[in-house]
Amino acid sequence: MSILIYLSFPWFIVSMIAEWLLLRRRSGDELGYESRDTRASLSMGLGNVVISAGVRFGAVAFYGVLYEHRLFEIGTGPLAWVLLFFAEDLTYYLWHRASHEVRFLWAAHENHHSSERFNLSTALRQPWTTPFTVPLFYWWLPLVGFRPDMLYTQIAVSLLYQYWIHTELVGRLGPLEWVLNTPSHHRVHHGANLRYLDRNHAGVLIVWDRLFGTFEAESERVVYGLTENIRTFHPFRVAFHEWAALFRDVRRAPTLRAKLGYVFAPPGYSHDGSSFTANELRRAAGVRAAAAE
Question: Is 239 in contact with 111 (CB distance < 8 Å)?
Answer without folding.
Answer: yes
